[in-house]
Structure formats: structure tokens, C-alpha cells
């Protein structure tokens, strides 16, 4: 089963169980993926997290039920996973801009989040610049933090980690240690056990250091993709093109080992900034 079909299968599973408690482990299992890689791929392709999708769909169905039935508001709140009417009303107003009571009386417009259908579009008008390289294992030094992938903790925590790194000057120390084939400071995503992941800010080096931790990146075949433009939009756009255009057109899929984002020493927010994405590859299963 291809990754597009697997992802759609997970979405269909979510849709079939919107009125029930859903664990991210159950959803990822339908996509034959780890929790980390499922959430990452889902966010890249849809521009929303799994939690945002579930919340949006449940509140969309709740709004339809409020406007088309006489079911009690408290019963609808419980049905779609809210423990109290107050929590339901707050979330409902955040999405729709009106209260559940106003929706029942048709006193305002509603915002609908429709069921997702994953489609791959054949575009290719803008060629992607990349290369496939073989590398043995290599060492990086840096520091890591472990994040939960539940409730989008990793989505909030990683940007904060970068802000603290830049403000403290640790990024400059890593640039000074950078002596390897990959030039720049790395953001390294490492899938962990269950609902946890490690994120490293690091640099490739052959030097020993007492200040930073050390990790060995395993030997792999890598897809190395050029990223042109200011952060963070250029990096996000590149990830989306890789998954929606490059992987469907090539005989590879992600290998599941650590993935790298490579950031330059110059100002990454300049219009002509150059960065890279390194993804370990394996051949697609027939």
C-alpha cells in the first residue's frame, strides 16, 4: 500500500470514529506509520495538525446537529468529546464565531471543515533541485529535547527551542564546531517510542566536546533537496512539494531514520537564503 493510500485509510478511520475517543496510536496504526511520522506527514500535507482536524470536524458536525435537530446542547457537547457545556461553548465560538445557542437559532454563519480526501496532483512546472547521495555514518554534536507528539506539544516546543538557542548564542558555538560534509546548523528529527520524539539542534563535526551531546547518524541513501527563500515559509513549502510531488514520482519512500534540516550561517530570513532538507531513503515496497 502506498503512503497516499495509507494516509487516506487513517483519515477514513478518524471519520468513522469522530463520536468516540481517539488515540493517536490507533490512527497512526491505520497508516502503517509511527506516531511521529504520521503526524509529521499529515501536517505537511494538510497545513493542520491531527488534533486541529479532529476538532474542526467534530465542531462542524456539532454545528449541523444544532441547526437541524432538537437534541440538547449538553448531549451534543458530550457526543463530540467535551466534558462540560462551557468547554464546548468556548471551542464552538472559537471556530464558528457564534455560541451554540445562537447556532440553534440560526443567528449567524458557520464555518465548515470538510472531510479530507488526499489527492496527488501532477504538476512539475517548477522543477525541484535535488540529488541522491550515499553516505556512511557520521557524527553530530549538539543538544536535544524530548517532546510529546500529543496535543501538538512538539509543534509549539520546537520553534521555542530555536528561539532560545539563537538568543543564547549556542547556534554560533555549533557553527564554530561545524567541520563535516554538511555545512550549517542542523535541526534533526528523531522518532521516539510511542508518542514521543527527540529533536536535536546540532552540527556535523569530527571534534569532541564536553559542552554538547553526541549522536551518530546511521549510514543511508539520502535525498538532498535545495531550499531557496526565507524561513520559515520556504522550508515548509519545500517539505510539501517533496511529499506531494517528488515521492509520488520517484521509486523511494522515507526510511524512517533521522531527517535533517540544514540552516546556513547567514540570515535565514533573507529572500535569497539557501537551506537544505536531507531525507534518508529506501526503495518503495512492491
TrEMBL record:
Pfam families: Cass2, HTH_18. Keywords: DNA-binding, Transcription, Transcription regulation. Residues 8-106 form the HTH araC/xylS-type domain. InterPro entries: AraC_E-bd, Cass2, Homeodomain-like_sf, HTH_AraC, HTH_AraC-typ_CS, MarA-like, Reg_factor_effector_dom_sf, Tscrpt_reg_AraC-type_HTH. GO terms for molecular function: DNA-binding transcription factor activity; sequence-specific DNA binding. PROSITE patterns: HTH_ARAC_FAMILY_1, HTH_ARAC_FAMILY_2. PANTHER family: RIGHT ORIGIN-BINDING PROTEIN. This is AraC family transcriptional regulator.
